[in-house]
């Protein structure tokens, strides 16, 4: 919805025109993790190290054009640092190589790496959302840690074709509100490190547009391409 249109010249759909947002289901922040061998204990120290040794540090991603690839490219552009990208064929292998010390760092979702952080096999430097994660309350946001305005999340939402009759949209919207308000669902999402959705279709629409515009700039500035 917000990344592929900038990486692929021709799509069979236009994200901002062909769909109508119904509601946000959940969002998940990216987390910047580094191997403990990297001599930086805070985000500011990492930025200083990267500026002192441009191109020497490297980062893993789930692949060219993947969300965590662009999360790091956004960080690089905002922090004005040069860190070398090494794409993998999926996040699990990338995480494994950071864990083994073959790679210095990466952005990743929290649940798969939480146990490693608690065991001090990873050092967590910053959360990509605009508020701290309940799973890692002592880890600052990237904004708090030294890169104001940074945001990198994944999100899941409900949309319908743009020509869906209003009466049908109203029924789906009513069902969405009931389900997303259910305590058992919200508890389940939170247990997986996600922030449950809320708000109106207009707020969800604004989120999609912000993400669309953000990644348009990131893709252009980084020259990111998909394999």
Report on this structure.
The chain is of the alpha+beta class. The chain has helices spanning 4-7, 43-52, 67-79, 91-99, 114-118, 142-145, 166-180, 183-191, 201-222; strands at residues 19-34, 58-61, 84-87, 105-109, 123-127, 153-161, 195-196. The longest helix is centred in the last third of the chain and has 22 residues, at 201-222. The mean pLDDT is 94.
The CATH class of the largest domain is identified as Alpha Beta
Please identify which CATH superfamily of the largest domain we are dealing with: Periplasmic binding protein-like II
Mean residue pLDDT: 94
CATH architectural designation of the largest domain: 3-Layer(aba) Sandwich
CATH third-level topology of the largest domain: D-Maltodextrin-Binding Protein, domain 2
Q: Runs with pLDDT <50, length 5+?
A: none
- Helical segment count: 9
Q: Please identify the structural class as seen in this structure.
A: alpha+beta
Radius of gyration: 18 Å
Share of helix, binned: 40-55%
Number of strands: 7
Strand residues, percent: 15-25%
The helix/strand series, from N terminus to C terminus, equals: HEHEHEHEHEHEHHEH
Outline, from the CA principal axes? Answer: globular
Number of domains: 2
């Amino acid at each position: 919805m917000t990344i592929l249109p900038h990486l692929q010249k021709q799509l069979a759909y236009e994200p901002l025109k062909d769909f109508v947002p119904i509601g946000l289901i959940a969002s998940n922040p990216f987390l910047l993790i580094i191997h403990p061998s990297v001599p930086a204990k805070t985000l500011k120290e990492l930025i200083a190290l990267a500026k002192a040794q441009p191109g020497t540090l490297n980062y893993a991603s789930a692949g060219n054009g993947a969300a965590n690839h662009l999360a790091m490219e956004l960080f690089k552009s905002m922090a004005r640092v040069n860190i070398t990208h090494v794409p993998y064929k999926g996040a699990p292998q990338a995480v494994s190589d950071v864990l083994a010390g073959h790679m210095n760092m990466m952005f990743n979702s929290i649940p798969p790496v939480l146990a490693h952080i608690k065991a001090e096999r990873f050092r967590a430097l910053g959360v990509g959302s605009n508020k701290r994660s309940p799973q890692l309350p002592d880890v600052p946001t990237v904004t708090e840690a030294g890169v104001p305005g940074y945001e990198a999340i994944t999100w899941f939402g409900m949309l319908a074709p743009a020509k869906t009759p209003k009466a049908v949209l109203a029924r789906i919207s009513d069902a969405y509100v009931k389900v997303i308000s259910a305590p058992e669902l919200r508890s389940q999402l939170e247990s997986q490190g996600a922030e449950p959705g809320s708000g109106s279709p207009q707020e969800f629409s604004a989120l999609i547009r912000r993400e669309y515009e953000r990644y348009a700039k990131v893709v252009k500035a980084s020259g990111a391409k998909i394999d």
